[in-house]
Design brief:
With 365 residues, the protein is α/β, with parallel strands linked by helices. The protein has 3 domains: 68 residues, no CATH class; 61 residues, no CATH class; 174 residues, Rossmann fold (3-Layer(aba) Sandwich), CATH 3.40.50. The protein is 35% helix and 22% strand. It has a 6-stranded mixed beta sheet with strand order 7-6-5-8-9-10, sandwiched between helices. The protein has a two-stranded antiparallel sheet with strand order 1-2. The protein starts with a helix and ends with a helix. The relative contact order is 0.12.
Length: 365
Amino acid sequence: MVLQINNDHQRFRKIVKGRIREDLRKFLTREELLGREGKKYISIPVRGIDLPHFRYGDNNDAGVGKGEGKPGDTVGEGGDQGPGGEQEGRHILEVEVSLEELAEILGEELELPRIQPRGKHRITAEKDRYTGIRQSGPESLRHFKRTFRRALRRQIMSGLYNPDSPRIIFERQDKIYRSWKTVLSPQSNAVIIYMMDVSGSMGDEQKELVRLEAFWIDAWLRKNYQGIESRYIVHDVRAGEVDRETFFRIREDGGTRISSAFRLARELIDKNYSPLDWNIYLFHFSDGDNSSESDSRECCTLLKENLLENLNMFGYCQVASAYGSGNFINVVHDQLSDAEAVITSRVNTKDDIYDSIKTFFSPGR
């Protein structure tokens, strides 16, 4: 019975994943998912899945199978269309899916390759691994199934077991405990540094696009790394580091000097993240408007001379704005066309997020 329930549950999960995969573009643009990003599971509304249920009726219903029909009769309809009914409609089923499952579906649907961490696994973490059993230990580690079997066997062999009144009493000799040892587990750590233009030309619509894109970038990278850190930089003509909440909510005005963010990113990396130990991802979001073309060229120089050699990837995502010039992406293409670690994408609407993520991670960096 338990095995059958498990099989049914697995089939149901496959159906759910199939529905999510079919509507993946739509799910990528659901901003309400972001409010639960700190939790392990996310509630996903899925259409077209009905929970099994009994349907009761009487034997007096007319329809197909009752009496003789005539050629040309309509099958399955009861005549003219009547007024709106009072029955329950089809509801949307909400299912709980973990962020890891969503990232897995995202990677499968976009055919994203597994990311291969740079360098060697230089960072190790201590981890307790259960390797066997022993006769003593704390009650929190007691192996219940083994203890139960030992107690049951002892009572049967001694004639104390009564099948009409089954009662298992544990004695000290019955108890078995899990044993463990501490092992060193290699892991690859990664840091994502998000940079965003918050000048006057970046409005709420542009920031919403950034927020959605950054959420799914974060989900995919966390699927590929055991340890990950995120840092956030905002800039107009000056740059500053902020927390996650401020990054997505801040609203400022003024001009734009993109190079200020690149310099701050360089300082963070030099101070905290050795490329020998860290996989480093740098993402910049902007509408492409900059104070001058010379500052745009300076950004490219900073990338060439100070940043790219230490990065797994520099991703530049340009969002559409009615106020920005949109020229920065052209300068990047002109100055860094031969840099393999530089990947750019354009996001004009929410529908472009799907293709943008595929553009960033198709190389499997």
